[in-house]
Every structure is written in structure tokens, then in C-alpha cells.
Amino acid sequence: MNAATADFRSDTVTRPTEAMLRAMAAAPVGDDVLGDDPTVLRLEAILAERFGMESGLFCPSGTMTNQISVKVHTQPGDEVICSKLAHVYNYEGGGLAFNSGVQVRVGGDDYGRLSAAQAELLLQPMDNVHAAPTRLVVAENTSNKGGGTTIGLDALRELGGFARQHGLGYHLDGARLFNALVADREQASDYGQVFDSISICLSKGLGAPVGSVLLGSRDFINQARRIRKRLGGGMRQAGYLAAAGIYALDHNVERLAEDHLRAAALAKHVSNLPYVDALKPADTNMVLFRLKAGLDPRELLAHLDAQGIRLMAMDPFWLRAVLHYDVGEAEVHRLQEALSNWTA
Ligand SMILES: *Cc1c(COP(=O)(O)O)cnc(C)c1O
Description:
It contains 14 helices and 13 strands. The chain has 344 residues and is an alpha/beta fold. The strands form 3 sheets. It has a 7-stranded mixed sheet with strand order 2-8-7-6-5-3-4, sandwiched between helices. It has a 4-stranded antiparallel sheet with strand order 9-10-13-12. Strands 1-11 form a two-stranded parallel ribbon. The chain starts with 5 loop residues before the first strand and ends with a helix. Pyridoxal-5'-phosphate binds next to helix 3. Residues 61-63, 66, 87, 140, 144, 173, 175, 201, 203-204, 212 line the site of pyridoxal-5'-phosphate.
């Protein structure tokens, strides 16, 4: 990949800016496994406070924060309810089975939404020994495979009401929660009222090179800390990485709105392409689209690649372009032109 590459595959491809690297280099550090890295403690405290949760736990990845959360919420043999498009179900390497020995029951729509009414249909009869006991509901905001869809606090609250009514845990995969907060103008602190646990990624649109934080009650995070250790996710002078997260929270949240504007413009362009058959809503920083039947998305990817432009295939049908701070106005124009020039 050269400097001229416009990389729309994911918002994880962002590289730290000079200023972020300086903040990392200047961070005071300790030993986070021994619990005394001041910068990690600060990042965890900042996010816990912002979301109205008691405690936080810094982890290497969002996969790990999700997997740890499910492990704390469940016992082997339990069942988890989530959207059929959920990252925990589709993109974590079978981790739910591997790490927690749980099974999954999925539903909802093609945009990553799972309403309380839809979840109700997935609930197992608790008094029937034939059924796996339902234990946990996982929501995802924004929904990645849904097209960066924002779910909205009202719907999430309603799903939480369902979870509470049946004594189920309620976890939020908030890998891109800041995109949702910015797009829907929501208050972070409201989220702590709704969920038992929240996973936040710093390495997506926020631009940190590494890191996710799991939020929950003090007791929940104490249990999570033991599991992080078991999974080998305890890092020592992790403050250098946490400093990137703090820098990202201070500098890169509001600018997510620019990515959203560019995604909306790109989606409009894509909707007019003669060879595109379907498009997801583009609520935030992603544009997911599908080619007309009979067309091979790999040929479009190769056409773009030849011009130094990269998109990602989500599956054999859907392509994804993600906006982030390393692809600006100029790159979006290049992409639009290259898409227009493809003769399917
Ligand atoms: C990226 C992502 C994660 C975590 O991914 P990591 O690469 O493990 O940090 C979790 N959930 C969603 C919805 C994601 O998009």
C-alpha cells in the first residue's frame, strides 16, 4: 500500500497523528496488571464517568471486551439473544462458543435492529428443561453489518426493559458508540442507565492505534479483570496506548460528524449508479451497497484497486466503504469518479 492509496476498507486503518504519538510518548506509565498505570486508570475513569458507569477496564481489542463481557454475564449452556448481524455472532471467530460455551439465538432486521418485540420471540421458556436458559441480550450501536445504523436510545431502552423484565443481562457492543452519539445527538450518560455493560472502541473512527474499554459496575469489572488476565489480555506499560485513547476522546469525537457528512454524500452518489441494486441507510460513517444480480463484486474491487482505492467485501454480495480521518474530500471524489467509470 502506498501513500496515495485511498483506503476505505475500515475506520480501523487510521494511523496515529504526530500529535497523538507525542501524547503517547509523554504518558506517565506504571504496570497495569499490578493496577498502577496512571494513564490507564485515567482513561478508564474518564469513560466510566462519561457513560455513568462505576468502572472501566482497558483491553487490547473490542473483540476482547465483548468476549469478556459475555463470559461474565453467562454460564456454559446459556443462550444469548442478539441481532442476526451482530459482530459478536458474525465476526469474533466463534468466540462465544470458544470462550463462554454459550449458544446464540438471532433475529431482527437487515439493519442490525432488534426490537423488544422481536427479542421476545427469541426468549426461551425458562421453566422448560429442554430449552437453553436465555441469559443475555446484546445490542450493537452503531450496527456495523447493518450499515453503520444508529439504533436510537428509545429502542435500546425498550429492549432493556424486556431484558430486565426477564432477569437477563444487557450488554452494548458500542464499538462505534461515539458515531451514534454524534449522529443522534445523544448523551453518553444516558447509556449507563440503560446497560449493564458497554464496550467502547478507541481504534475505529476515534483513531487510536489500539484499545477498547469495557464499562460496568465495580463488581462486574472486578470479574472482568480476572478474565482479561486468563485470556492473556493484561498489558504492562499500557498507559502509552491508553494515552492515545485519551487524546482521541479529547480531539477526535466531534470530527466524526465530517465522516458522516461524507458518507451521506457518497451514499447519494452510489444510489445513482446503474449497477447498484441496494444500499443500506448510511446513518453514520459507512456506505454498504450491493451490486445487481449477476455482477461480480470482485471485479469492481479490482477496478478500484487498480486506481489505488480500496473497499471491503462484507460477504459475496455487499461492499463497504468506511469514512475516517485518513480519507477526506479528495479521496471521496476519487472514489466517486472511479465508481462512475466502472462499466459493469
Ligand atoms: C470492530 C468491532 C468490534 C471489535 O473489533 P476489534 O477489531 O476486536 O477491536 C466489535 N464490534 C463491532 C461492531 C465492531 O465493528
